[in-house]
Write a structure and sequence with these properties.
It is a single chain. The mean pLDDT is 96. Strand 3 and strand 4 form a beta hairpin. The protein is of the alpha+beta class. The protein contains 3 helices and 5 strands. The chain has a domain of 99 residues: Thiol Ester Dehydrase, Chain A. The relative contact order is 0.24. It starts with 16 loop residues before the first strand and ends with a strand.
């Protein structure tokens, strides 16, 4: 797999914002398809009656679905072979119908082990700005 579409290390500066990306609303169909693809059939994500019995107003997205969207955002900026580390912290529930807007910022750049690396802070938030996931990544750039 090629890294030719990756940003160039020399063009990246600390504090630089990555272009944001907004995803379509998370639907019940999305949740059902993700449950099937991931094998995570927890009813809190797909069964309205179960969610209400658990005290929730509705079903909500799998945390790993939100992480997958943040990962998609990251690999849209730099191809997957460039990734050296990617992690998140789940900070809020993502209700069905939410549109996630992913953004990122360069917080460090360095050379290590023969690679030119940039460290990123990442966020997946709803359109009102409430963070759902806070992440970090380390990316090797040409």
């Amino acid at each position: 797999m090629s890294t030719s579409n990756a940003p160039r290390y020399d063009a990246i500066q600390i504090g630089q914002e990555l272009p944001p990306m907004t995803f379509p609303p998370i639907t019940r169909t999305t949740l059902a398809l993700f449950a099937g693809a991931s094998g995570d059939h927890n009813p809190i994500h797909i069964d309205l009656d179960f969610a209400r019995a658990a005290g929730m107003p509705d079903v909500f997205a799998h945390g790993m679905l939100s992480m997958a969207l943040l990962g998609r955002y990251l690999t849209h900026w730099a191809p997957q072979p460039c990734l050296r580390r990617f992690g998140v912290r789940f900070v809020a529930i993502t209700p069905v119908g939410t549109q996630l807007r992913c953004s990122g910022k360069v917080v460090d750049r360095r050379e290590e082990g023969g690679e030119r690396l940039v460290a990123l802070e990442l966020v997946a938030a709803d359109l009102q700005g409430e963070a759902k996931l806070i992440g970090e990544a380390l990316v090797a750039l040409p």
